[in-house]
């Protein structure tokens, strides 16, 4: 199976958990887009849901395919969020934000009763940190915030390049108007400690560690899709 087929497989398995009338958080990224395609097809057969998109990109894609959308202002409580991840560990702690949507993704996941992660086996790790951790920061005071992030990480024994995410020749700007620092710490043995440490840095808007948010992952590999349930 090629990479796209695996994403479709995971998305299809997650779609089985979507019920008529659900208020859905709809993730961002290439795997989430496969979910939107399948969701739209199921809706053409009669399924009725309302979705809250986790990014402008997902919103545009949903509109293109006719998936009805609402906002957290109108619908502040959701039944289920289905989203991709950049990596996940055996406890279903995640790193997200490779596509820059981590802030809205986290707000939407936190507003949902359940979160299902859809991924292929390449995203599975024993310890988070192989994928550089995206940290969303306010553009004001960028250098000072970057320095404080490095110091916060160093206090936990973490080090490595922290780089400003760029598009061609300008900083990448998130849907919220912020920048992203990608922190290559290599290994994050205590994600909870890093999470609270990063949250204490003024200028850090959010980070891509999703802890205790996902209840389930459907992970597609050569032998089909397997389900992982979180213990929390
Ligand atoms: O900001 C982007 C999101 O966190 C994505 O869910 C994540 O990057 C995974 O994307 P993909 O399914 O394209 O690998």
TrEMBL record:
Pfam family, one: Rib_5-P_isom_A
Gene3D superfamilies: 3.30.70.260, 3.40.50.1360
Pathway this chain belongs to: Carbohydrate degradation; pentose phosphate pathway; D-ribose 5-phosphate from D-ribulose 5-phosphate (non-oxidative stage): step 1/1
Enzyme Commission code(s) on record: 5.3.1.6
GO biological process assignments: pentose-phosphate shunt, non-oxidative branch
Protein keywords: Isomerase
Active site: 105 (proton acceptor)
Catalysed reactions, as listed in the record: aldehydo-D-ribose 5-phosphate = D-ribulose 5-phosphate
Domain of life: Bacteria
Residues noted as binding substrate in the record, renumbered to the chain: 28-31, 83-86, 96-99, 123
Stored InterPro entries: NagB/RpiA_transferase-like, Ribose-5P_isomerase, Ribose5P_isomerase_typA_subgr, Ribose5P_isomerase_type_A
Keyword Glycoprotein included in the entry's annotation: no
GO molecular function, one term: ribose-5-phosphate isomerase activity
HAMAP family: Rib_5P_isom_A (MF_00170)
NCBIfam families the record matches: PRK00702.1, rpiA
Similarity field: Belongs to the ribose 5-phosphate isomerase family.
Task performed by this protein: Catalyzes the reversible conversion of ribose-5-phosphate to ribulose 5-phosphate.
Subunit structure: Homodimer.
Protein name (record): Ribose-5-phosphate isomerase A
Organism of derivation: Kumtagia ephedrae
